[in-house]
Design goal:
553 residues, mainly alpha, two-stranded antiparallel sheet, 8 strands, 45% helix, globular, disordered N terminus
Length: 553
């Protein structure tokens, strides 16, 4: 049994082989919960969660599991020509100047890591607080950013906001590192990139929201902007004076300081302790009421106090709960949550408490996650609405498939997600791999993941399934590949009805339509009964290639 599932028992005070009996929760609900909260519902995980007796206890066990962090490779010379001189192994540029090592670790963590919920939430946060390998090429530059997301996934959003603001990869990606105060001649102004994105994408969005995530309208029935250019300039001036830290230090000796992606950015102070590259003017921040007075920072504050006050101002904006909460729901549970669902998650963000989880402090992530996963909309054996659920994006599709099959893998899987339209850790822009407000074509429903779906990518999905089910996936000769044991399904193939029932339980928590079950039986029965392996392969291929499986409901 994988270690993560033994942890369920250890944390619950149970042991394998004990007299513990399954609780009152159904296999279907547990499988559905694991689809939402992990990278795939293995049979061992389903059994372990059932033995704990409630979804709440399964969630409590997950919150106690420490993070599986990324290894931080040594930083290389900026040029691959210097880092991989003539005579270096052919894989040198891939191993030291691309996100390949982080991608491999990601897939290994997802497939075998103990901390399944943390890994899933951190991945969702990566798609909200975006840094892209397009501009951050070295894995050693990028890994500390991923570790911030893992460390803070169960903490407080205010701390996450601060840690991500001072992360050097974010600093370089959105130009806060070495952002200088305005020049005396007026020719240089603070860079506005981070100021703009931390507001628009990382915290509050463009327009005022109601607690249920809907847009608040003014008396003229128009949206009310959350900020204007004065606020962007105010925050841009707040984010001045910071540079790379000295190695293993929280201070900086120069401005700009030599590159260091391992330690959080530091404020530069001269020999007299003065923050001479920080702007000292009055700064305009946000109003915390629609149309109300904006908050301002007084002149001549220290840069560290300016940063604290500015992040507090963002964190306390009423939009943060619905804006961040709705996106987390979309990544974990459903693309179109009801207004009541979003309101309940907003309430958890604002109070820091939900279902007995949380510290009682605003922004508690455990309270938010509990509110999302324990909400009545998420629980039960099947959703009430036909519009419920979300398309499994390529990364989730590949990992959920392999994990549910208890597959072995060396983690070299990005070539498959890439060809399906998702190059892991290389989102094209700060707007993520796909826009979070993307509308599914031909509908009035949000379907963010459909933003990278296409007929070409759909064929790539089916080719992946075909390669996996009828052979072994192996992107190149440097990879030992990924595969699984078909024997358990082959044994069931003598009884097509039982084979379909098992696939239904294992991959769709029992929610497969009657029509699909009937079609599967017809297909299986077309294969001679003695060819049990081919029967199992045929049935599995049809399930994994189906639209019903590709939508997590």
């Amino acid at each position: 049994m994988p270690k993560q599932h033994l942890l369920y028992f250890a944390l619950a005070g149970l042991t394998m082989g004990s007299a513990a009996t399954a609780g009152s929760i159904s296999q279907a609900d547990v499988t559905r919960y694991l689809e939402q909260s992990t990278w795939g519902p293995t049979s061992d995980a389903v059994t372990a969660c059932q033995k704990l007796g409630s979804i709440d206890k399964c969630l409590a066990a997950e919150f106690k599991i420490p993070a599986t962090l990324y290894r931080v490779p040594a930083e290389m010379p900026p040029s691959s020509g210097l880092g991989c001189p003539k005579g270096s192994p052919a894989t040198c540029p891939r191993d030291h100047y691309s996100q390949y090592p982080n991608q491999v670790e990601f897939f290994k963590h997802a497939l075998t890591g103990h901390d399944q919920l943390r890994q899933r939430v951190a991945y969702a946060l990566h798609q909200i607080l975006v840094v892209s390998g397009v501009k951050i090429p070295q894995p050693g530059y990028y890994a500390p950013y991923l570790n911030v997301l893992l460390d803070d996934a169960f903490g407080n959003f205010r701390q996450l906001l601060e840690n991500i603001t001072l992360n050097p990869a974010m600093g370089h990606y959105l130009d806060m590192v070495n952002n200088d105060k305005p020049s005396a001649n007026g020719k240089t102004s603070p860079n506005e990139n981070y100021a703009r994105e931390v507001l628009q994408l990382f915290s509050i969005g463009l327009n005022w929201l109601n607690d249920d995530g809907s847009i608040l309208l003014d008396k003229q029935n128009q949206p009310i902007p959350t900020y204007d250019q004065d606020s962007i300039e105010g925050f841009a001036h707040v984010f001045t004076g910071w540079t790379f830290a000295n190695r293993n230090s929280s201070s900086a000796s120069h401005f700009p300081n030599p590159v260091n992606y391992a330690d959080p950015m530091a404020l530069y102070r001269d020999s007299k302790g003065q923050d001479i590259h920080h702007d000292k003017s009055v700064k305009t921040l946000l109003s915390l009421t629609p149309g109300g007075m904006v908050t301002t920072l007084p002149a001549n504050q220290d840069a560290e106090l300016d940063l604290k006050d500015a992040l507090d101002n963002i964190f306390n904006h009423p939009n943060v709960g619905p804006y961040i909460g709705k996106q987390l729901i979309q990544h974990l549970v459903t693309s179109n949550p009801s207004p009541d669902y979003v309101s309940r998650v907003t309430q958890a963000f604002n109070t820091g408490k939900s279902h007995g989880f949380g510290s009682g402090k605003r922004g508690d992530m455990q309270a938010v996650i509990a509110a999302i996963l324990l909400d009545p909309s998420a629980r039960g054996s099947a959703p009430a609405s036909a519009n419920f659920g979300h398309l499994r994006e390529p990364v989730q599709f590949v990992v959920n498939t392999l994990k549910t099959l208890n597959a072995h893998s060396d983690g070299f899987l990005n070539p498959y997600t890439h060809i399906m339209g998702q190059d892991l850790f290389y989102p094209a822009t700060v707007f993520n791999y796909y826009p979070h407000q993307y509308q599914a074509p031909g509908t009035v429903l949000q379907g963010p993941e459909f933003g990278i779906d296409s007929s070409t990518n759909a064929l790539a999905h089916e080719n992946f399934v075909n390669e996996l089910v009828f052979g072994k996936i192996q992107p190149d000769k440097t990879s030992s590949g990924s595969g699984f044991d078909l024997t358990p399904l082959s044994k069931l193939a003598v009884n097509p009805t039982e084979l379909v029932a098992q696939l239904n339980r294992q991959f769709m928590h029992g929610a497969m339509s009657a029509y699909m079950q009937s079609e599967l039986l017809t297909a299986i029965n077309h294969v001679p009964a003695k060819e049990t392996k081919l029967r199992a392969q045929t049935a599995l291929y049809l399930v994994l290639a189906s639209g019903q499986y590709q939508i997590q409901r």
